[in-house]
Amino acid sequence: MTNADPQELAKFGDLAHKWWDPESEFRPLHEINPLRLDWIDQLSAIRGKRVVDVGCGGGILAESMARRGADVLGIDLSERPLKVAQLHAMEAGVANLDYRSVSAENLAAEQPGQFDVVTCMEMLEHVPDPASVVKACTDMAKPGGWVFFSTINRNPKAYLFAILGAEYLLKMLPKGTHEFARFIQPAELARWCREAGLDMGQFKGMEYNPITRRYWLSGDTSVNYLLACRKPQST
Ligand code: SAH
Hints:
CATH superfamily: Vaccinia Virus protein VP39
Bound molecules: S-adenosyl-L-homocysteine
Helix content: 25-40%
Strand content: 15-25%
Radius of gyration: 16 Å
CATH architecture: 3-Layer(aba) Sandwich
Strand order of the largest sheet: 3-2-1-4-5-8-6-7
CATH class: Alpha Beta
Largest sheet: 8 strands, mixed
Number of strands: 8
Number of helices: 8
Order of helices and strands: HHEHEHEHEHEHHEEE
């Protein structure tokens, strides 16, 4: 049994050809990428590090980490985004970058403790059993390695901003991109991380001003947020 929802994978597959169009449905991912990339790099200094990007999609984050000198493996279970990612890396001539269709759980079983940095961004809220992905991400990290997540909080404000605002009013995302019930409260994510054996690091909120189209990191985790954790040196 794979921990994946075929409808979710198909949703991303259907839009895959637009992944690298910065004005498409993927505009928000393009716009937030410099912010999250800098944050990940500041904390974990990715140059020369072995990184796995879980749920990499068309490769916006994975490719940008490889451009910074990391040795990156991107994994996803939706085939078309992976093909788009591969093609884009080839055309851009980015080295140190590979893509594979494999689940987080299977890669964790195959290569436990092999990665200095694990990133899993905007993916947990699309998965039937996110705690299992958190555990797999933890298992893939080396002792002392970093594990990063980002997702969307579950509360009335997040419903208003991430679904009504982004999908219906501003039409930044296609209707049905996100399902409210799958959103994740920071306390839930923190609990899964602790249960997986991670040391809790820092939460950051990610805020957006629709008029200036600017994103920034803050202490406000009420809608979009990120979490940085470390795997203890010895478990
Ligand atoms: N992490 C990327 C893409 C986010 S879009 C970024 O932030 O830029 C969400 C991605 O998660 C899609 O590519 C989708 O195919 C992938 N995904 C959804 N369920 C998955 C699963 N069970 N296993 C692996 N990838 C999954």
